[in-house]
Batch of 2 targets.
Target 1
Amino acid sequence: MPGAAVSSPTGGNPVSTTFSWTPTADQVGRYFICFAAVDQLNAMSGSTCVVINIGVLPLAPVVYSLDPAYGYSQDYTTIQVYGNYPSMGLVQCEIATGLYTGTFVTHSEVLCIAPPVPQATTVEVEVSCFCDIFTTQNRLFEYYDSMSICDMGLMYIAPPTPLFVNPSTGPEYANTLITVLGNGFLDTRRNTCKFNTIVTPATYINTNAVECVSPADMLSAVNVTVSNEGVHYSTESVIYRFQGMYCNDDSD
């Protein structure tokens, strides 16, 4: 990297060194820099990476879905937050009005822990992975108390049967609204679609259809399954194909 420097290691144990860099005007952009230590026997440590944005704002993260999307009000619940997290840094989870430290898993998943609350309620969950830039999708997490979770009967609800998906193809770098057609859809407010392992919320249309949005940055063909309550998914699946945005169809 032009203009960057690493100081000579200090003596003692542990050894430390300093990385320094003063960017110039022609180095505007986003830089991914990874660090690793090597000892005298050429044994290498694990690496630590950082993202440095010079003159540009980091890309905003996007949340697709929460799994689970509900939990007990008197207990902690670990939530898998699926989405698109282009920048990697300190993960913060905003749950209701509280701010909590999360865990970065991959660029499509982070973990948040929902704390106990005094009573059953519904709260919004947002995530930041860099520079306090939070998602704005307003994904909802529902707290139930012990009595209401029994009364609600959060038990097995038979999944629907998907038969077709329309459209059946879409660009790999964009979110596409698709309709899954089939049988047995129920209006539970917890309907979901799953693209291989990525879960997205679904909107109930009628007993034969739901709508959901395909996640971005997936490749090739995926199996789409559906659920009426976000837990039990259909054993049947339909194929949705992601296409590169610059592919040409030369077929007659």
Note: The chain has three domains: 4-54, 62-152, 161-243.
Target 2
Amino acid sequence: MPKLKKLLRKLLYLFFSAPQRQARKEAAQIIAEAHARRKEIERGGLQIKPNHEIELAFVSGGKPYYKFVNEQNIPVMRAFKAMDVYNELEMRIDREYLLAFFKTTRKILEHRTKLDLPAIVQLIVAAEGKMKHITNIDTLYRLASVLYIAENEDPYNWDYEFAEKKIEHWRKNSDVESFFLHSPMSDFLPSFHGLPAFKSWDDFHKAQQLDQRTTYELMLSSISAGENESETRQYLSFLVETLQKQMSLKG
């Protein structure tokens, strides 16, 4: 009987340990490849697989930006983000605005001793107005951050902070609009023939940002004064400050 138990233990060890060793080996290889690719990216080289060829798209502020030759075959993680941004373009409302709307409405309903229906109606009217906009230019910039890759960027993933730095660079240099006008994104751009108040998409963009900032300030004023330290107020203040910073980039 002891011999049988010993044999069973040995068989169980061989049965379970071999797949585990193989799995660990495969995991180590994947990690090693990821580290190698990261080092290559940090050195400024884009490591691209054969089925993901890239080509130069445009230069902004002396920095080159690339795009995938076959835009229907972009890497999975970027494709998922592109789908999210396309949905925002369709709605004319981005995720940050929706979060701000829901957070503010909840605060009004939870913490007002008297229900402030006019404040809620104002927020709803503002949201409906945004959905009637032709295009949200900020969302269009975000789409560009998915489709166009910097030299020192991981082409297989989309990183929020890195994307924000790219967008800030493009805004500062004001030299990408002409490229966008001749790219597939031009389908989303407004035609200014029917908008005499705006001479360019830059004017239109500034008007949108001002409208957005005004709405966030309205949300802030709708929250009870006792909510100064609340997460909602901090979030709204962050959005206002971010917009103010973006607007100041172009004067």
Note: The longest strand covers residues 54-60.
